[in-house]
Structure formats: C-alpha cells, structure tokens
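STRUCTURE:
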C-alpha cells in the first residue's frame, strides 16, 4: 500500500508538472525557421508573425533564415526539430505545395511531417509585359501566342517557381505555347523584362508592378488571382478574363514539427488569429504585395493537401521532370 501511494504521488506530481508546463507556454525564447533568405515575402511575413507572437505571448521569437535547395534545407530542419513549441517554421507554397510534385525525394513528408498552425499571408501575382510587347491584356496575349506558337516568352524566378507553375497553367487552360525562361530569382527576371529581353514576367508578388507601372516601363496584363487585387484595382484578374481556376496566390504559413501539443497549437493560433486581423498588420503586408490570411489549423492542413494535388497535376500535365 505504501508503494502504491508513492507511485500515485509521483504520477500526480508529473501530471501537475506537465500541466504547469503547458499552461506556462512559452517560458523561453522561440526559434522561427524561415527556409528562404532575408528580404523576400516569406521572410517579411515571418517577421510580422514573430512580432505578433512576441507581443501577445511575452517571449522573444528569433527568426532563423536557413535557405537552400528551394526551401528544402530549412523545411527539413523544421520537420526534425523537437515538438515542444520552441522551434517553429514557415511553410510555403514552394516548400509544402510545389516541391512534393517537383522533387523525386524529399527529406520530409509534407503532410505527416508537420503540424499546421495557421496560414499567415498570401500575395497576389501579376503577369507583366514589356512596354513594347504586341499585346495589352490577356485576350490579346492569348491571341498573339496562338498566332505565334513559342514566340511569347515568360520569365519566372526559377524552375518550379510559382510564376513557372502559373505560366504552365495558362498554357494548358488557354491552349497556347508560351516559352518559359527561368531565372535565379525575381530580381534578374525583372531586370530582363525592363531591358526587353523577355516579353513577359510572371511575378508572384506585386513589388515590380508597384515600382515600375507608374513610369510606363512595363504594363500589367492580368492579376493571377480569381479576383482583383486592392493594390492594383484597375488591373483585371484571371476571373475577369475567363480563367477563374487560375487563382494562384503565393502563401506562407506557420507550422511546427509533427506531434506539436494541441494546447500549444491553440495558443499560437489564437495569438496570430487576433494579430493578423489588425488593420496595421494588413497595411504592413500591403507594402510587399501581401494580405493576411489567418485560418484554423484544420483549414490550413486541408489547404496544404489541396495545393499538393493541384500543383502535382500541373507538373504532370506540363511534363516538368521531377528534380
């Protein structure tokens, strides 16, 4: 009987300690892994999310940029971290949506390897054309591409990038043959568009558009979303042009490794859900062409699964060889 009382006491103490730990989360700094370099929309979204968590939960959130292999290096680090809530990461359309269909072997499972917490931000993309391109809207672009198969070039930030996927989606939906010209990043692609070396550039944020449209150096053909962007309200969207299914935001959301405790997920989701609805946050995100898109953990998990299947089909249809 004495031994049984000791066992019960030990169990009670351990249970109390676990409950206290859960109630006290977070009680030390949190690391937020960003699988891309500083300065881009994923990084900018992460830093906004980090500030919200810090301000709401009272512990500093340290952003750790671990770029490489199209987001694979950092995303693998997220998946392999301890599921205690003190290492989180940014999942993105590239690392969790496109890469599963583009890469033959990933060192992580995009569904079972992570705990979705909330989507954070989404950017509207845009098809930009050089100022002397012989078309001014999507209808005339498609007509020109049909009359001149392969002549319309579209730049993107790289093989398998969102811009590449959008271009191939349009090729299939419109029955045209635009030629993909991959670059190593958005900057070089934008520079070649401005120099007239490519006819179009499918940008996944509105940075180049907002910078150069006022000068007339480029022209906006269509926003790559179903609905128009409030940042470019005069530019038609894919839905206006008859292609509502090409609704292709670049998205960036918060995840943890598999097995993250439900109470930690709930606490983080609640903090970000409230913070992302602050009009000041929407104003911050608008500066890099994004908008806040808070979701429940279940909604975000379902969305990731849908995106994997969607882009896998595009990759197969366009005969893009897995890397």
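SEQUENCE:
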């Amino acid at each position: 009987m004495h031994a049984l009382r000791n066992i019960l006491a030990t169990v009670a103490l351990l249970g109390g300690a676990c409950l206290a730990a859960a109630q006290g989360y977070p009680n030390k700094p949190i690391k937020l892994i960003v699988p891309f370099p500083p300065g881009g929309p994923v990084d900018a979204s992460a830093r906004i999310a980090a500030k919200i968590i810090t301000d709401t939960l009272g512990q500093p959130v340290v952003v750790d940029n671990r770029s490489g292999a199209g987001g694979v290096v950092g995303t693998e680090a997220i998946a392999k971290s301890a599921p205690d809530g003190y290492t989180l990461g940014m999942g993105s359309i590239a690392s969790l949506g496109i890469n599963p269909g583009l890469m033959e072997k990933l060192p992580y499972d995009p569904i079972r390897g992570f705990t979705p917490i909330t989507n954070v931000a989404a950017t509207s993309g845009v098809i930009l054309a050089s100022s002397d391109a012989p078309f001014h809207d999507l209808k005339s672009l498609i007509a020109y591409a049909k009359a001149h198969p392969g002549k319309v070039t579209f730049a993107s930030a790289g093989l398998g990038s969102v811009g590449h996927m959008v271009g191939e989606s349009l090729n299939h939906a419109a029955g045209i043959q635009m030629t993909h010209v991959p670059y190593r990043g958005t900057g070089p692609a934008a520079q070649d568009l401005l120099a007239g070396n490519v006819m179009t550039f499918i940008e996944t944020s509105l940075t180049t558009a907002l910078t150069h449209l006022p000068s007339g150096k480029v022209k906006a053909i269509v926003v790559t979303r179903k609905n128009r962007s409030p940042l470019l309200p005069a530019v038609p969207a894919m839905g206006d042009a008859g292609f509502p299914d090409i609704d292709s935001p670049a998205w960036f959301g918060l995840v943890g490794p598999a097995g993250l405790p439900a109470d930690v997920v709930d606490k983080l989701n609640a903090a970000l859900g409230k913070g992302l609805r602050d009009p000041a946050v929407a104003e911050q995100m608008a500066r890099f062409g994004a908008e806040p898109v808070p979701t429940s953990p279940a909604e975000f998990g379902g969305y990731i699964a849908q995106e994997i299947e969607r882009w896998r089909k595009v990759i197969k249809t366009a005969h893009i060889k897995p890397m």
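REMARK: The longest strand covers residues 114-123.
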